[in-house]
Amino acid sequence: MAQSAEEVWAQCLEFIRDNITRQSYKTWFEPLKPVRLEEEGELTKLTIELPSRFYYEWLEEHYFALLRKAISKVLGPGGRLYYDIVIKRDDMEVGYEGASVQLPARPEAPSHHPPLSRPPSDSSLPEAQWNPVPQASPSAAPSAPAAHPFAIPGIQKIRIESNLSPHYTFDRFLEGDCNRLARSAAWAVAQQPGSTSFNPLLIYGGVGLGKTHLIQAVGNYVKQHFTDTNVRYISSERFTSEFVQAIQHNRVSEFSNFYRHIDLLIVDDIQFFSGKEKTQEEFFHIFNTLHQSGKQIILSADCAPKHISGIEERLLSRFQWGLVADIQPPDLETRIAILQRKAEDDGIDIPGEVIEFIATNIQSNIRELEGALIRLLAEAMLRKQEIDLDLAREALSDLIKQSRTTLTIEDIQQTVCAYFNIPEELIRARTRKREAVQARQIAMYFSKQLTTYSLKAIGTRFGKRDHSTVIHACQSVENQIETDPRFREMIREIQHKLELRLR
Ligand code: ADP
Ligand code: MG
């Protein structure tokens, strides 16, 4: 065979890349790997590896036609695409669903469980909290069922307190490259809790990146759209303390029973189960019961499951049965969008440059971004002053820790690429695409203007180009500044953005 799987897939990718947005490409196609290329009679079969079943379902639903086109373009009418779904753990393959899918013939629709439903319940019943201490029967109403929610036979009828904060909705959760996969998965689960293959759905990522918000958004959505569904959100710490109390009060079986009646169980920060063996064991059984009966489980953790220590292997492996999706720190555009949205929600007008100043300087997480905004508003109110850049610099000076007076070439590359909305790699690549050439020249010009690097050092940082290229770039930019007012304005805007990076 003349071609390798890699070559064929690379050609397919080229076609795909030209037909979808960069973000979709990055999210859905970059993680896929070509595995093998085989010939079978008339057919040429390309097999690619998908990181989870979720990808399969997503590709099927959204990119079926595109994949088919790509395959027939590259392999001709005898081209077929097969998927391997490989779930990796500790760099070891644990789950494997081989070559199950074939394109261009559309496979049978994956079988779904019916969506969660329950017989209509009496919604006038009070919402029940798990209460470890048996309540003393109020003498006035000794037989009132609400006083003993766990003892009554019609336990299904209990509406379980969901513990959700109504503020955390999908609507308020802004999407960016950093959270796209997690958000899509959460959205898919919210549409059909218990009926997708992402069960459990495990979202992981650093603090303040939106895990709690996202998993609660699913809860709120499900509560609203599947009204008879029992949803419960709980942190692993609270779960642990409830369980410990249940032991102390000899009510473990009621505890178990209570949790087995939940349709959507959301457990936040599972890393805190670490070292709690008894709790883990109880949770293991609850997990199994719920999972087996098609109930949905959603989990969050502060790091990838394979890095969580102190949790039993069998539990860790179950956590990865469904879909594991991460949330990364937000990029600049997402940070700006989030700040703009928060300001809008609060009905306050904040100048764009102030938003950009905060977003540029506070990069770690969204909670800190929000904190900065609140601080700024408070300052403005106290001082009865308009919000402007000076106030922002002053009010946030201690949040913006190390002060910076110089820019690096990377800062400049980042800023320029963000301005032109092109990937940063492009500026260092060998491509001569127009937009890349212009961005590269401008970034070289600013590197010369604003840093003390030599021409040679600058050239090196732009994909090993030599110093004469840098000279040429600077001249070309200067000429255009002289002759083209629109170009001059653009340079002014970029310069302004670069200045915002200096504190
Ligand atoms: P985590 O649980 O990962 O520590 P949270 O869910 O508590 O983070 O998020 C911290 C704050 O940032 C919350 O107020 C949340 O509403 C907000 N937030 C996080 N991600 C987003 C997002 N994508 N869009 C809007 N707000 C967000
Ligand atoms: Mg959280």
Protein architecture, described:
48% of the residues lie in helices and 13% in strands. It has 503 residues and is an alpha/beta fold. The strands form 3 sheets. Strands 8-9-10-7-11 form a 5-stranded parallel β-sheet, with helices on both faces. A 4-stranded mixed β-sheet has the order 1-2-3-4, with helices on one face. A hairpin with a 2-residue loop joins strand 1 and strand 2 (43-50). The chain binds adenosine-5'-diphosphate and magnesium ion. Residues 211-212, 268 line the site of magnesium ion.
Give the helices and strands, then pairings:
Elements: H1 5-19, H2 22-29, E1 33-40, E2 43-50, H3 53-75, E3 79-89, E4 92-103, E5 127-128, E6 159-160, H4 180-191, E7 201-204, H5 211-225, E8 231-235, H6 236-248, H7 252-260, E9 264-268, H8 277-292, E10 296-301, H9 313-319, E11 323-326, H10 332-345, H11 352-361, H12 366-383, H13 389-395, H14 409-420, H15 424-428, H16 434-450, H17 455-461, H18 467-483, H19 485-500
Parallel strand pairs: 2-3, 5-6, 7-10, 7-11, 8-9, 9-10
Antiparallel strand pairs: 1-2, 3-4
Magnesium ion (MG) is lined by residues 211-212, 268.
